[in-house]
Amino acid sequence: MAGNAAGAEEVYRADLEQHPRNGWALYGLIQSLKAQDKDAGEIQQRFDKIWAQADVTLTASRF
User: How much is the pTM?
Assistant: First the structure.
């Protein structure tokens, strides 16, 4: 949203090193990759699996 998708990607990847099942960070990483026209398919699959039972639909990350 702030226009720094590459910086956001770094932040999300760093968070996921500490918390690999963080759906919020996965969602943000997907958005940052898409903003850079990078493939987000693998991350999308991880997110879909982790978030499958969630009762919240994400529209933004929490960072």
Answer: 0.88
Q: Give residue limits of the domains in the chain.
A: 5-51
Residues 27-55: pLDDT tens digits? 999 999 999 999 999 999 999 999 999 98
Distance separating alpha carbons of residues 55 and 2, to the nearest angstrom: 28
Nearest to 27 by CA among 53, 36, 63, 4: 63
User: What is the residue-wise DSSP string for 1-43?
Assistant: --S-HHHHHHHHHHHHHH-TT-HHHHHHHHHHHHHTT---HHH
